Amino acid sequence: MLDAACATAETGAMLDVRPVGYVIGLLLIVLGVAMALPLAADIIAGNGEWPTFLETGLLTGLVGMCLALACSNGVRDRLSLQQTFLLTTSVWLALPIFGALPFVLGTTQLSYTDAFFEAMSGLTTTGSTVISGLDFLPEGILLWRGMLQWFGGIGVIVMAMVFLPELRVGGMQMFRSEAFDVGGKVLPRAAEIASKISIIYVGLTFACGLAYSAAGMEAFDATVHAMTTMSTGGFANYDASFGVYQGVIEYIATCFMCLAALPFVLYIRLVNGEARPLFTDSQVRAFFGIAATLVATVAVTLMIVDDFAPEPAIREALFNIASILTGTGYASVDYMAWGGFIVAIFFFTGLIGGCSGSTSCSVKVFRYQLLFTAMKAQIRRIHSPHGVFRPRYQGRVVTDDVMSSVMAFFVLFVVTLGIFSVLLAMTGLDLVTAVSGAATAIANIGPGLGDRIGPSGNFAGLNATAKWLLAAAMLIGRLELMAVYVLFTRRFWQI
Amino acid sequence: MLDAACATAETGAMLDVRPVGYVIGLLLIVLGVAMALPLAADIIAGNGEWPTFLETGLLTGLVGMCLALACSNGVRDRLSLQQTFLLTTSVWLALPIFGALPFVLGTTQLSYTDAFFEAMSGLTTTGSTVISGLDFLPEGILLWRGMLQWFGGIGVIVMAMVFLPELRVGGMQMFRSEAFDVGGKVLPRAAEIASKISIIYVGLTFACGLAYSAAGMEAFDATVHAMTTMSTGGFANYDASFGVYQGVIEYIATCFMCLAALPFVLYIRLVNGEARPLFTDSQVRAFFGIAATLVATVAVTLMIVDDFAPEPAIREALFNIASILTGTGYASVDYMAWGGFIVAIFFFTGLIGGCSGSTSCSVKVFRYQLLFTAMKAQIRRIHSPHGVFRPRYQGRVVTDDVMSSVMAFFVLFVVTLGIFSVLLAMTGLDLVTAVSGAATAIANIGPGLGDRIGPSGNFAGLNATAKWLLAAAMLIGRLELMAVYVLFTRRFWQI
Ligand SMILES: [K+]
Ligand SMILES: [K+]
């Protein structure tokens, strides 16, 4: 029976989707079980909202169980590249479909469009929200929003460390070092890395929550905000986002947002006793170099143009640059009022992003480094036109394969931004809302620019088409574009 | 003496800039002599403005002569790559410096900032203007604006066919076919190609002028507009740009703008009896495919959303898409009023551009083709991870060198756009003006978006810093970025 299926797959009749269904089924069970936590939170808070999570948890878990059972006869250790591609996108589609249910059935009473948008925004760690009146929501829903981002965050790291290198998407194959070479055995390797990363991720989240708590945040808010900080997600428990926490909490958030945007593989090495790489890694240094330059520019502008005192200027510059550069998207103030220069800086800062293998998104620092390395090699050719200059990154030669993936990523990023901007404008949005909305979705940042979707706005007022488009853009951006686009090529489906 | 200089150059003491100075000197003499034409136009029109051109012509010619004489002892057939780079940028800096003089001394009485902006906008074929009241200007100044663009246009083609392939800038080395291999002998080859191209360029300009004239344009306007059409420059003789020519003239302009955006090498082959390549060239086909899709989208939108009758909808769609896609930048109406969707389409259309080796600018169709070819090769790797797939373009294998140059171009284009947007916003411009201003300058299109610099606006109201920034962006964009940036690397100046 199994052999027959394999033979079918090999002779090219059809793609065996059972391993994909099996993994999605297992993850849905996990998602359903996870709903026990907001259920418990609602029971403890005594707000009578817990039946929502009981219903959605049972539904999600049962669907997952059926799917897993139905597909269990197709499970194998080794996934083909096609199956891996299909799995990556399917997971990020299936989880929001069920993760949206509590928003529909709970007090928020969202339409399914809004609920799916919120769940996709959560799991992709984008953090754009359609819910207003956050301050008055029951604990369960707020915790669920935080948990979606937190799970999304660890999913992103595992994807970046196991799936994308295997799929050669966006130049991530550069990080397919000996230690992480999976040789097709994607799933066992994913589980192994996920467990290692989990310890670090849980530890950092715990530290972040404690720090928030010590600085005066209430325990529940500290928990949820720690989850959305470490996942660079950016969902907050208040309509004013971080506007309710001026002062020391902003410094703490800045620290942990930056920690969340560093390559998690360096933390694994730190735990293994190798502290050096964390300080010598060229990507980390470049990240902090970029951040420092931007913070200095913004702080000076705030002092000179907007008459800020030095401390608030530096604090707001630190917090907002960290928030946008790491793609977290917390807002402490309505920075649209700070003038065109700062708004323009913030827009382009969002297109930089954090480091590879972290929870942050966007183009990411290592891609810019690789691109500039390639340009340097080009300039060297001026003097020796026939010399061969191999671009190097962190001591290793960058292969043409990596370079062309990075290039493909960059081009697709810009082209995708253009296409989504035009499509969003088609739904009736003005140019700034359309372009910044597309950018914030693809780069998984959260707030856009302008009155409607800016730091003081909310995505609820957009029409349904725009919301589905933005949800699609979040998914495409989170999966580094190519992983999704490949599914739309005829060649992909040929076996 | 000459040997001593060569020896100096070879031992690395300093770069021999005399060949560069010599060529610039010669070109300044040509520019000075060319001022005889507007001089003549002013005499014929009898408006008493001719002394301006006598002064500036003599000044320019004399400076050129002195420079050429001073550098004549360093003239050689062969230029080093460094000298070629230096020459390319220097020419495009020196000509506007002197080309600006008539605007300062003539009736326009511009400040030098404004005059330089206008001259740079002319020679780079950008077509953004700071002059209002065009309708009342003397013939000489209007002709001079047209001539700057016309000379700029042929300069661009020669640069694209001889200089950029030699400099390996932006992937243009792909067009360094046997026939055009210069082996370092850039100058003789440039003169040879310029003379061949000139015949075609003059012929097409003449045909365009005749067509305009036959459709009812006055002879003088037909001459100037033919010059600014064939150079995809976009300077017009009226503040309303092409708004004064509704109807058949728009169709004629559409045709000739498209002709100006095709690879001129195909016209040479057409003259040599090879008509086929013009119709089978994949870049030409892609260009018309893109144009047709955009025109259809815009025309349908104008009919449905803006209640246009079919003929005006198709005409305005044809004219405006051709104008923006080829980077000409004529405006027939204030399309800002057509709604966000069309404005967004126009913005991103400007980032596509025409074909290589034409007078148009921006990213250009062949680069997108190459980038998508590379992505296709990537997708093929999914099925055969260890297969080697060489991207091919027009039957030839695309080398890694070409690919990395194209990639460098694309990345630099986006990064340059970002940096200039931020710098322009710093001078106090709003986001839409800053970003669209940077884009229109780098892509050498002409009009931006918004009230200030949109199709019905004018660049005169910007501050001086913004004007210098935009002039720099025009130069950088016109020279395909890398040709300018190389001069700012330390390595370039090491011999
Ligand atoms: K985010
Ligand atoms: K133009």
From TrEMBL, chains A, B:
Alphabetical keyword list: Cell inner membrane, Cell membrane, Ion transport, Membrane, Metal-binding, Potassium, Potassium transport, Transmembrane, Transmembrane helix, Transport
Pfam families: TrkH
Identification of the protein by name: Trk system potassium uptake protein
Keyword Cell inner membrane part of the UniProt annotation: yes
Localization annotation: Cell inner membrane; Cell membrane
Gene Ontology cellular component annotations, sorted alphabetically: plasma membrane
Signal peptide per UniProt: none
Annotated positions binding K(+): 125-126, 233, 328, 444
Reported function: Low-affinity potassium transport system. Interacts with Trk system potassium uptake protein TrkA.
